[in-house]
Amino acid sequence: xxxxxxxxxxxxxxxxxxxxxxxxxxxxxxxxxxxxxxxxxxxxxxxxxxxxxxxxxxxxxxxxxxxxxxxxxxxxxxxxxxxxxxxxxxxxxxxxxxxxxxxxxxxxxxxxxxxxxxxxxxxxxxxxxxxxxxxxxxxxxxxxxxxxxxxxxxxxxxxxxxxxxxxxxxxxxxxxxxxxxxxxxxxxxxxxxxxxxxxxxxxxxxxxxxxxxxxxxxxxxxxxxxxxxxxxxxxxxxxxxxxxxxxxxxxxxxxxxxxxxxxxxxxxxxxxxxxxxxxxxxxxxxxxxxxxxxxxxxxxxxxxxxxxxxxxxxxxxx
Length: 318
Ligand code: NCD
What we know:
4-stranded parallel beta sheet, 11 helices, globular, binds N-carbamoyl-L-aspartate, Asp/Orn_carbamoylTrfase_sf, EC 2.1.3.2, transferase, pyrimidine biosynthesis
């Protein structure tokens, strides 16, 4: 099974072979990027619109760079300034943009499910750049590529995902992807930040870092998503760091060659100690950012191929 989808809305519908195809394509782009040899004709003639209804630094920048590197015409909609502020609905905004005939629409939205809804209303390929607490597929793919490059494989690894799991779309997409690829997943969080129904995920659950990190190959830290919290989920940031923040003492329980990951943005001294984040022998955080561009190039390349194939079939010129 190869990746034939029209949209990239989540990890959930993907088959392991589709994930592997996306990662193999991204791996080739990662090498081309390092040598400054990205082919500028892959998305030439295509229009990519980035619609970010929520703040973003690395995701938006990397989608923009990915599109430009492959020759797309990229437009960033300033959603703060758009008609949404005048009361236009998400769907009306989408239909207006759709009428301008974009080919690729990259969307981030604070509501879970909003991007899926939008994808049903437009004729272009839609890429989910994060919807509420639901999914963030390109983040999970870039994490997977980073792990595969560091560990030489993406199966039978013991991977700890730690912190604010309840509010995290990164955790959800990663749990699905890493589970599909047959890894052992451990979730470590205070009970208040562990999602309900977590048992269905086929994961092991811990509320103690030292126990949960024992002999893992990968330690993935998550940001406290304060913007999605409506009450006191933690006693204080100081107390949280003490119990759940990754420092050298806690990391010592993982395998000696365990890698440390974080999707960013990082809160140093809250979920991770700054010296661990900057330790080039353990931290792959910068590599995650680099792989983000390659993964987004791969996703847009494969979606554009599928779109051209569909247009050829229906006799419409691509
Ligand atoms: C994440 C997100 O927005 O979901 N950031 C990202 O895309 N790199 C994680 C976060 O905000 O903590």
